[in-house]
Amino acid sequence: MAMKENSKKIFMYVKENEDSNITLADISEAVGLPVKSVNGSIVAFQRKEWMERIPATVEITDEEGNATMSLQAVSIFLK
């Protein structure tokens, strides 16, 4: 079965940004789809073992570079 257009957009975005830590929100914003739709495609890619999610911590800093908050995130990579 051929990949659907939205899934193709998501896959290509991840492929083009595989050297970066990207999140569902990043992908959602870039391809113009809801996070829920992006998540569904990523789950399907994980089942096919094309992608994986890796836990990551994101540090939020102020203008002076002082850490103000840490968030738990998930980065998505091609396998």
Describe this structure in words.
By secondary structure, this protein is α+β, with helices and mostly antiparallel strands. It has helices at 5-16, 24-31, 35-47; strands at 51-61, 67-78. It has a two-stranded antiparallel ribbon with strand order 1-2. Strand 1 (51-61) and strand 2 (67-78) form a beta hairpin. Helix 1 packs across helix 2 (24-31) and helix 2 (24-31) crosses helix 3. The longest helix has 13 residues, at 35-47.
Strand order of the largest sheet: 1-2
Largest sheet: 2 strands, antiparallel
Listing every helix as H and every strand as E from the N terminus to the C terminus, the arrangement reads HHHEE
What overall form do the CA principal axes indicate? elongated
Could you give the distance between the termini?
Answer: 21 Å
Mean pLDDT: 85
Secondary-structure-based class equals: alpha+beta
**Helical proportion?**
40-55%
Q: Name the beta content range.
A: 25-35%
Number of helices: 3
SS elements, strand count: 2
CA-atom Rg in angstroms: 14 Å
Residue stretches low in confidence (pLDDT < 50, at least 5 long) are: none
Supply database-style keywords.
single chain, 29% strand, alpha+beta, 79 residues, two-stranded antiparallel sheet, 2 strands
Write the layout of secondary structure elements.
Elements: H1 5-16, H2 24-31, H3 35-47, E1 51-61, E2 67-78
Helix pairs in contact: 1-2, 1-3, 2-3
